[in-house]
Amino acid sequence: MPVGREGKETKGGGLALESPIIEARDLVKDYGNLRAVDTISFSIRPGEVFGFLGPNGAGKTSTMKMIQCVSPPTRGTLTVFGRDVVGHARTIKRWLGVVPQETNLDPDFTCIENLLVYARYFDIPAAEARQRAESLLAFMQLEEKADVPIDGLSGGMKRRLILARALVNNPRLLILDEPTIGLDPQARHLMWEKLKALQAMGNTILLTTHYLEEAERLCNRLVIMDRGKILVEGKPADLVRRYAGDEVVETESTPEVISCLEEMGCRYEVHGDMVQAFSGQPKVLAKRILDTCNPGRLFVRRGTLEDVFLSLTGRELRE
Amino acid sequence: MRLDVPLPSRLAWKVWRRNRDVFFKTYRVNFLPPFIEPVLYLLALGYGLGMFVGDIGGVPYASFIAPALLAISMMNSSFFECTYSSFVRMYYQKTYDAMVATPLSIEDVIAGELLWGATRSLIYASAMLVVLLAFGVVSFPSSLLVIPFSFVAGLLFSGIAMCFTAISPSIDTLNYPAFLFITPMFLFSGTFFPLSVLPGPIQVFAMAALPLAQVVTVTRSLTLATLSPILFLYSLAWIAAVCTVLFFVSISLMRRRLVI
Q1: Which of A185, A194, A297, B158 has a CB 3.0–4.6 Å from the CB of B78, allowing a cystine?
Q2: To the nearest whole angstrom, how far is the Cα of B131 from the nearest Cα of chain A?
Q3: B7 touching A, CB under 8 A?
């Protein structure tokens, strides 16, 4: 599998393991009066899967576009592969693989032609391009669709083909902007499987998502962004433990339960007709609620990244 | 506007090749018009209307309009490629977004589009020239020079088109330049009747400002093999100058639209 071999090579090849793949310092992006990215700093190490989470308009895509060298930063410094994005776009882009949020496959071509034409933009010789295209189609389970026009593909197939296209130049860094957006569960799981495989091969992957489950499954480390700022950074499990606890008590939100929780002085959040209570000792808390607050239904469940996310970014709707 | 000149690289040809590949994938649709169109116009106007017109300055009417048909074809094939087709690729298909995620810069992408627009002009004019030669309404071999010239003329109209594409808010607003600029030019550039029958000021305006008038002048000199050197050189210089300026201006406008 050529992807894997190259993936491993790129992990160590050329770059010292210690030096970060991406380094951002006080990065700002303004669109007119709108500040989309507000003074953020982060660094991404070789071989890790790093996630950007956040509600719509958090600044995730703007950050990705700056890393991809297609949108110049307003202020701050941003280096990719140790090179400043300003002035080194062509070099940096040669080593990037990009899966954009919007499907932008070329509808004038078939699947394999999409890969071959794209390979040409990277100056990959025709024979080598064909070889890579064929093995990438196989890896993405699209061999049978090689000669099918783009219109004839399902949503999941299109996303997989875009991922194949992003790998055609054996990138040192893979950038995925909402890789599974709009996919049904089967297609999403297949996409995750492929990303897991790429991760296991040692690829450095940067992804944005607002599917929390996706981030929990895939990311070694992530940041949660909101309104252009980074709110927290860490490993998914650590963040869950820190902000939600290992387990969350969830029960019906009746005035009785609320006043009861107030009395106990424990942290809780109401959403809809349910209330979530957080505690270091969830089982004890659950028992106390059952004994004294007369709740309807009550569950103790595992804390998730979604709890962290909602408690940090609030519940108001973003559009 | 920024003053730095946007310089595309050799990678622009990759964009050109992408468009060429698509063109030849659908060659059956693409090659029919340049063969059928001149035949229809020649029959209807050249021979039909020409019966009543007779000669224009000693030139049979069919031979008079033959270079105009070539010039119009150069204009349409490149202008419509770099307006509607480019807009579709830019806005609907997101082809440019996909391209700039590779080592290609936006300057390369637009330059490739312009070069392709020019190439379409060359392909269509050459195909049409074959038909016109068969009808014996253009002279041989001087009219062969139309082939290289059609590339330059195509680059001119591609540049004009790309400027409109860069500032057009939607695909519908491209109808304005198509109907208010291209259509009048199609009629009033010395195409189907000589400019000299128009009022003086309009003649001056046409020769000073209308790109098609210049292209018709040059093409007609080549197909009739009769040269009025001053006018010919003036039109050629006009085309070269405007073409060069618009090549860079259109790239610059596009960069302003797309790099945010």
Answers
A1: B158
A2: 30
A3: no
Q: Percent of chain B, pLDDT > 70? A: 98
Give DSSP secondary structure letters for A91-124. Answer: HHHHTEEEE-SS----TTSBHHHHHHHHHHHTT-
> Residue A56 and residue A71: Cα distance in Å, rounded?
19
Lowest mean pLDDT among A35-39, A81-85, A287-291, B2-6: B2-6
User: CA nearest B125: which of B235, B219, B209?
Assistant: B219
Best residue in B7, B24, B102 for a mutation probing chain A (most A CBs within 10 Å): B102
Interface ipTM: 0.90
Q: What is the percentage of chain B residues whose pLDDT exceeds 90?
A: 85
Shortest Cα distance, chain A CAs vs residue B247, angstroms? 22
Residues 6+ apart with CB under 8 A from A186: A156
The dihedral built from the CA positions of residue A82, A86, A90 and A94, taken in this order, carries a sign that is: positive
Q: Which domains does chain A have, with CATH numbers?
A: 2-240 (3.40.50.300), 245-303 (3.30.70.260)
**Taking Cα atoms as reference points, which of B253, B251, B259 lies closest to residue B100?**
B259
- Whether A265 shows a pLDDT value over 60: the answer reads yes
Whether omega for the bond prior to residue A20 falls within 30 degrees of 0, making it cis, is: no
- The CA distances from residue A179 to A218, A222, B255, in Å, are 12, 16, 27
Q: What predicted TM-score, i.e. pTM, was given to this entire model?
A: 0.89
CA distance A141 to chain B (A): 22
Are B94 and A96 inside 8 Å of each other by CB? no
* CA A213/CA B259 separation, integer angstroms: 33
Reported as a single tens digit per residue, the pLDDT across B39-48 is 899 999 999 9
Is there a contact between B101 and A109 if contact means CB atoms under 8 Å apart? Answer: no
Is there a contact between A301 and A248 (Cβ–Cβ < 8 Å)? Answer: yes
Comparing alpha-carbon positions, the chain B residue that sits nearest to A94 is: B103
pLDDT of residue B255: 94
Q: What are phi and psi of B237, to 5 degrees?
A: -65, -40
Q: What is the pLDDT of residue B4?
A: 64
Determine, for residues B97 and A94 on separate chains, whether the beta-carbon distance falls below 8 Å.
Answer: no
Render pLDDT for B88-99 as a digit per residue (tens, 0 to 9). Answer: 999 999 999 999
Residues 60-79 of A with CB under 8 A from B: 68, 70-72
Total residues found in chain A within this entry: 319
Any alpha helices (H) in A52-110, and if so which ranges?
60-67, 89-94
Neighbouring CB atoms inside 10 A of A258's CB total: 14
Q: How far is B97 from chain A (nearest CA, A)?
A: 7
- Chain A residues in contact with B93 (beta carbon < 8 A): 104, 106-107
Question: Nearest C-alpha of chain A: how many angstroms from B260?
Answer: 6
- Does position A82 have pLDDT exceeding 70, yes or no? yes
Q: Do A96 and B259 touch (CB under 8 A)?
A: no
Report the pLDDT averaged over residues A14-27: 79
Closest residue to A100, CB basis, from B22, B93, B101: B101
Of the pLDDT bands very low, low, confident and very high (cuts 50, 70, 90), residue A316 is: low
